[in-house]
Amino acid sequence: MPSEGRLPKIYTAPIASPSDVPAAAISSMIDRRGIHQARLADTVRPELGPATSADPISALALGVVISRQLEREQPHLVLHALRQGSSWSEIAMALDTTIAAAQASFAEWSQQLPSAERTMARELSTAAGASS
Q1: CA 46 to CA 35: how far, in whole Å?
Q2: Whole-number pLDDT of residue 10
Q3: What pTM, to 2 d.p., does this model score?
Q4: Which of 23, 34, 31, 108 lies closest to 65 in space, CA to CA?
Q5: Where are the domains of the chain?
Q6: How far from 10 is each of 19, 57, 61, 65, 125, CA to CA, in Å?
Q7: N or C, which end of the chain is more exposed by having fewer CB within 10 Å?
């Protein structure tokens, strides 16, 4: 737990590459990236201070980490959608892709699951295919 009155590292760490981004919730990373973008846009927010040469680099690095994290979470969200009864048509629309591409990506990801979970994922996928 952070000390009282001290900002979490995500708000204070110098960030020049993705490896510099401290572990934090995606929402905190997005917030920090927004601070850099606001300074670069010269948004009237005196509390942020003026833009620096580090702002675009920090924003880029944070964007990479956010993107990677969201990509890692995507198959898990597809699994949750299948468990909740979503069709492949709905999932493909949410992913802005084709049904075949969404199914193929999920099938590839599910291969790394333990046997029982892989079987369950396959069954959910088949059932969702029937409702598409």
Answers
A1: 12
A2: 95
A3: 0.77
A4: 23
A5: 1-72, 85-132
A6: 12, 15, 12, 12, 38
A7: N
